[in-house]
Specification:
six-stranded mixed sheet; disordered C terminus
Length: 196
């Protein structure tokens, strides 16, 4: 998000001081966020070691295990001249990390169609696992209060993280299992994630 601080937010997500505090292990770091922070988590995860977002720590490895993006903003915005794009769609690469996306179908603040577009672009251009869950009847910030829907998404995130941590080869490129489309319960769609 471009603002008075320019593109500093992504740099804040990747600051090496924070990495040292958690004993930097990129294969165990998950970036997560909801709403505008989902956009930041997605952009930061998709731009490892991108010097534009790493002022003062340009040489640091800022790769992560995966991103978890809940009811995020993924569409295009006018970043202005000389400012990198704010949409994670601009940074999707074949070596993108796995991403879990959940969005409410009835979200009136940020349309689910943008989340669908982001998930489809990831599935098309990335080799890693992509999970997309669109929740019928869910509004923006569906996790604000505890509910069955919130518990299901939390369980899905835990399963996604456990599955990735237990299967390091799924985070790498060229794994045949990552290329198989998988239908998940509850209208979730993914690639490389086993259904139960």
């Amino acid at each position: 998000m471009a603002g008075p601080r320019g593109r500093r937010e992504e740099g804040d997500c990747l600051d090496p001081c924070a990495r040292r505090r958690i004993r930097r292990r990129p294969n165990r770091i998950f970036l997560a966020g909801g709403s505008s922070r989902a956009q930041l988590a997605s952009v930061a995860a998709l731009t490892p070691s991108d010097q534009r977002f790493q002022p003062g720590f340009e040489e640091a490895d800022t790769s992560v295990c995966a991103a978890i993006s809940i009811y995020g903003r993924y569409g295009w915005g006018d970043a202005g001249p000389g400012v990198p794009p704010s949409s994670p769609l601009a940074y999707i690469r074949p070596d993108a990390p796995p991403i879990f996306i959940a969005h409410g179908r009835s979200d009136t603040l940020l349309a689910a169609s943008a989340a669908r577009e982001f998930a489809a672009a990831l599935l098309e251009r990335s080799r890693a696992a992509v999970v997309y869950a669109e929740l019928p009847g869910a509004q923006h910030q569906f996790d604000l209060h505890h509910s069955i829907r919130c518990a299901a998404v939390t369980n899905g995130i835990e399963a996604f993280a456990s599955w990735l941590l237990g299967n390091p080869q799924m985070r790498g490129e060229g794994n045949e299992q990552c290329l198989k489309p998988v239908d998940l319960p509850g209208r979730a769609r993914g690639r490389g994630v086993p259904s139960r």
